[in-house]
Amino acid sequence: MRKIKVGVVGCGGICRGTYMDNMMYRFHVIEVVGVCDLIDSRAQYMVDKYGVKKMSFEEMLADSEIEVIVNLTYPESHFEISSRALKAGKHVYCEKMMAPTFEEASELARLAEENGVLFTTAPDTFLGAWEQSARKYLDDGVIGKPVTIHAQCTSHYEPETPFFDLAPKYFFFPLHYGGGFPFDLGGYYIHQMINLLGSIKRVTGFGGNMNPVRKYTNPKHPKYGEDFEVNTPTTLMAALEFECGVVGTFHISSDSQGTHSFQITGTDGVFNLGDPNSFRDTISVERRGAAPAGEGMVAGQMPKSEIGAVVDDGNDDQTLGEPVSSQKVNLPLLHGFYSSSRGVGLADMCYAILNGRRPRCHYDIGLHAIEVIHGIQESCKTGKIYEMTTKCERPAPIRTSALSDTAQEATLDD
Ligand SMILES: NC(=O)c1ccc[n+]([C@@H]2O[C@H](COP(=O)([O-])OP(=O)(O)OC[C@H]3O[C@@H](n4cnc5c(N)ncnc54)[C@H](O)[C@@H]3O)[C@@H](O)[C@H]2O)c1
């Protein structure tokens, strides 16, 4: 099999944590040629650990063997790195989100088309086990016709959270331009909503940057007591209307304490979804008459205790007239990629190059997702409904399989 040669820009947390291992050892279609970072020691770490080349970005762009630039920089650098790579005729895979503003994201889309190259963007978790299985169950009608969707994710972000990196950026990007919570965590929910239901037609919202000047409150922090400027939206409460007619809520905040819920209601039941920032999670359906999974319905990827487990919610209220109680049934996962598979979107793009097909993480989803956040912010300011101007194609589903997590790559070769 021909491997696709890639150059990696940005050797920070996510590169060190997951990407490099996955690109080097997990996805056989990827060959890492070189790495670069503004901070030499970070690139050197990759050289020492993985035996790859340290390169400048200019060397990567000039290297005709490198077909794809993998942009793992922080959001503020996404536009600069992606635009230069696209102009140099390289395919680009960029970590989330595509760009800090809708204007910059639109310009990147234009550059990809103008230069005739592929441009794909994270998050790629919607290719994960629970996300793809949920898509299959939904398409198969497990809750009938979907009617509403509800996504809620709240957390409390402070500059001195454990993630905070003092050197060299001196800021924690989820509290900064292009990286706020609606982009950082919100992006996962929007991508999975698009994967499940397709494009969004209109949005409206309240909220914004709730507390632009904050203080470092941890006495152990070197900047304790100093003011800290937050220049990104931190709380958004939005209503969404999808092209397919489904209506939904999207509630995202880094100003309150932690919650997570993600549900779709339908004409025949309720589908409880997982955390779209994880590849593996429990999914369940609640509908009258739901029964435990039968013999032989083993997906191979769920712990036995989870397969078909029936959770009695204690609700035997039968005022609706049906002689059955509502049951919650955990559904088996039907797909692989259930361990941390970041980079699966890049692997999918490599197969798209080899097989001449459309990549699943096509930029049109990333662009649409950025416009959703942009539109909600516009609505917050104007008090009006924002009509979306972009549409995206619902990505092709990954076929179900009984392959193990590590053999799952074969399902991308389509
Ligand atoms: N950290 C996570 O848990 C996580 C999870 C999923 C996705 N992501 C995404 O991955 C991306 C990177 O996140 P991170 O946490 O690794 O950030 P990070 O700040 O730890 O690392 C980013 C690296 O990019 C380098 N960089 C920035 N601009 C550059 C440029 N112009 N040229 C070369 N190098 C440059 C920085 O020096 C830094 O080492 C973000 O888009 C983020 O949303 C992060």
Give the structure's gist in a few sentences.
The protein has helices spanning about 15-25, 40-50, 55-60, 75-85, 100-115, 130-140, 180-185, 185-195, 345-355, 365-380; strands at about 5-10, 30-35, 55, 70, 90-95, 120, 145-155, 200-210, 215, 225-230, 235-240, 245-255, 255-265, 270, 285-290, 310, 325-330, 385.
Largest sheet: 10 strands, mixed
**What compounds sit in this structure?**
nicotinamide-adenine-dinucleotide
Shape: globular
The CATH superfamily label of the largest domain reads: Dihydrodipicolinate Reductase, domain 2
As for the number of domains, it is 2
CATH topology of the largest domain: Dihydrodipicolinate Reductase, domain 2
**How many angstroms separate the termini?**
14 Å
| Strand residues, percent | 15-25%
CATH domain class of the largest domain:
Alpha Beta
Annotated CATH architecture of the largest domain: 2-Layer Sandwich
Order of helices and strands: EHEHEHEHEHEHEHHEEEEEEEEEEHHE
- Quaternary structure: single chain
Describe the fold and architecture.
The structure is a single chain. With 414 residues, the chain is an alpha/beta fold. 28% of the residues lie in helices and 23% in strands. The protein contains ten helices and 18 strands. The strands form three sheets. Strands 16-17-15-14-13-7-12-11-8-18 form a ten-stranded mixed sheet. Strands 3-2-1-4-5-6 form a six-stranded parallel sheet, sandwiched between helices. β1, α1 (13-26) and β2 (30-36) form a beta-alpha-beta unit. α5 runs antiparallel to α10 and α8 (186-197) crosses α10 (363-382). The radius of gyration is 22 Å and the shape is globular. It starts with a strand and ends in a 27-residue tail after the last strand. Mean pLDDT is 88; it is low at 294-304 and 310-324. Bound molecules: nicotinamide-adenine-dinucleotide. Nicotinamide-adenine-dinucleotide binds next to α1 and α4.
